[in-house]
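user: Here is a favour to ask of a fellow structure person. I have my own habits and do not want them to colour yours. Could you put it straight underneath, so I can go through it closely?

assistant:
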Amino acid sequence: MWQIVFGTAVTEDGKQVETYGLKCNSTVIGDITTNKQDITEFAEQLNRLGASEIHAYELVENFLGK
């Protein structure tokens, strides 16, 4: 099951922003986006389609390329 993970990043001007990533079993990819709605919809789609964690990095690359 795909889950959202949270983190923080510091921008070049020193501001902290909340970032979102994904976790599936032992695979964790952090800091994918700052848009919570987009990553939530993506995680729901991955779960609905039964996406394998084996393809996690490819799936995230496709998500970022949209």
